[in-house]
Automatic annotation (TrEMBL):
Protein name: VOC family protein
InterPro entries to which the protein is assigned, alphabetical: Glyas_Bleomycin-R_OHBP_Dase (IPR029068), Glyas_Fos-R_dOase_dom (IPR004360), VOC_core (IPR037523)
Source taxon at top rank: Bacteria
Residue stretches making up the VOC domain: 7-124
Pfam families (UniProt xref): Glyoxalase
Length: 127
C-alpha cells in the first residue's frame, strides 16, 4: 500500500474558510473541480473535504471558533487562462486582475472566490 492515496500529489493546499460549501461549489463551476471526499460535522458544516483540480487536490474545511478561516493565494496552471478566468467570473468569482503577460513566461489573471481566497490563473505562453 502506498503512503498516500493514488492520484494525490505530495503537497496539497488546505483552505480553512468561513463558507466551505460555497468554495467547493465555486471550484466545481470555475475549474471543473471533482469533489473526492466530504466529511460533515453534526451541524452539517464541512469538517473536511477534498476537491481535485487537474492533477492536484485542494483540501477544505469550514472555520470554527477554534479554527479561524484565513484567506489564501493559490496558483493554478490551466491550458487557457483567459477562458478559465472568464469561466471563474461566471461562477461567481470577483476579478482581481485580468489575465496579462508581464515579465515572466506566463499569462496570468486573478479572481477571488466567495471566501476571499485569490486564485491566480496562469498559462505558460513563452519559455
Amino acid at each position: 500500500m502506498s503512503y498516500k492515496p493514488q492520484g494525490y500529489s505530495s503537497v496539497s493546499p488546505y483552505l480553512v474558510t468561513h463558507d466551505a460549501t460555497a468554495v467547493i461549489h465555486f471550484l466545481k463551476e470555475a475549474f471543473n473541480g471533482q469533489e473526492l471526499r466530504r466529511y460533515e460535522r453534526d451541524d452539517g458544516s464541512i469538517m473536511h473535504a477534498e476537491v481535485k483540480l487537474d492533477d492536484s487536490v485542494i483540501m477544505i474545511a469550514q472555520s470554527t471558533e477554534g479554527w479561524p478561516g484565513y484567506k489564501a493565494h493559490i496558483h493554478l496552471y490551466v491550458p487557457d487562462s483567459i477562458a478559465v478566468y472568464h469561466k471563474a467570473l461566471e461562477a461567481g468569482g470577483q476579478s482581481v486582475q485580468e489575465p496579462v503577460k508581464k515579465d515572466d513566461s506566463d499569462r496570468r489573471g486573478g479572481v477571488s472566490d466567495p471566501a476571499g481566497n485569490t486564485w491566480w490563473i496562469s498559462t505558460q505562453v513563452t519559455e
